[in-house]
Amino acid sequence: MSDLIAISSEGLTARINPFGAELSSLSDAAGREYMTDADPAFWSGRAPLLFPIVGALAEDTLRLDAQAYPMPKHGFARRSAFTVIEAGAGRAVFRLEDNAETRASYPFAFALEMAFTLTGMTLAMVATVRNTGDVALPFSFGFHPAFAWPVPGGGAKADHRIVFERAEPQPIRRIDKTTGLLLPEGAPTPVAGEDLALDSELFRADALIWPDLASRRLSYGAEGGAWLDVAFPDTPMLGLWQVTGARYICIEPWQGHSDPEGFGGDFREKPGVVSLEPGASRSFRMDVTVRPV
After folding, report:
1. pLDDT-above-70 percentage for the chain
2. What's the pTM?
3. Which residues contact 62 (CB under 8 A, 6 or more apart)?
4. How far apart are the first and last CA of the chain?
5. Which residues are within 8 A (CB) of 9 and not within 5 positions of it... i.e. 6 or more apart?
6. CA separation for the pair 75, 217 (Å, rounded)
7. Measured distance CA(105)–CA(62) in Å, rounded
8. Which sign, positive or negative, has the C-alpha torsion 138, 251, 179, 260?
9. Suppose 40 and one of 8, 44, 135, 169 were both cysteines; which one would form an S-S bond, judging by CB atoms 3.0 to 4.6 Å apart?
């Protein structure tokens, strides 16, 4: 494992692994940990970055101009060593650029920069994708942080809930657990107005997916205990996930999702894929504010 880079504010400390630019820990001044325990009996991930795809492609294959390229679920950024560009007291920045290995599965020039900044009780995470090549750059991007469930400092696991910024009455989507592809039919939402009561049984059929979420912020916690306020102004999609029975809940803002079942077109035509012109950039922000007991 790479040495973790630590940044701090008066209220929080974050530790980031340069391998994957992955947030590994978020703790408060009392030492309470708000991230997953990463128990390998369930899932050893912590907060992988999803790039240049979110979810799975049919047959793990990216198709471009009648060419086929191997691409693992969620892309390669989470399995890549980032360069540490900045490591200060309250801010750290990491960068991944295309190389021979990435071009074997994704034939584009790019730079993915990940900045972490701590101010008071808020961790701001900003991912910026830059097109450093001379052709349009198609991609998707997603966050995948796993927060402690229950949140430290109060509330039984069964009392935890997610409160959305807005009502979310629309059907959710599911994926085929065998292929990882997005199923065509919707499923009734478990959200009552703005409120989602969390229960591990929700995830027996894998993630809950909102391809067109109305909210751009939510709160997660339990009455009488700590809460996390999560803002994601730049991503219109959301996944919630855990391995059933684990001690975490993944709150995943996305720009993109798995291939819809039956999709066989060019990657550029896939729902949720965005395109950057040469020299252009696009940023995706996720803020996590801790409200401890």
Report:
1. 99
2. 0.97
3. 53, 68, 69, 70, 71, 105, 106, 267
4. 33
5. 90, 118, 119, 120, 121
6. 25
7. 8
8. negative
9. 44
